[in-house]
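Reply to dn_fold:

You asked what the input looked like. This is it:
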Amino acid sequence: MEERKDQARQTKMIGTALIVLGILVMFFTFTWGAILLIIGLIVFMAARAQEN
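and this is what came back:
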């Protein structure tokens, strides 16, 4: 149980990093930034669902 929560926390951190990266990339190329942002959101939401 504790291990799964830890894994969800790590996944959430990866998702957050992807979201931040997506926002930064958006300043240069909007399309790639949007793609990274969407992937980051999916990862983040999946981690939140797994945590509960």
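The chain has two helices and no strands.
Hope that clears it up.
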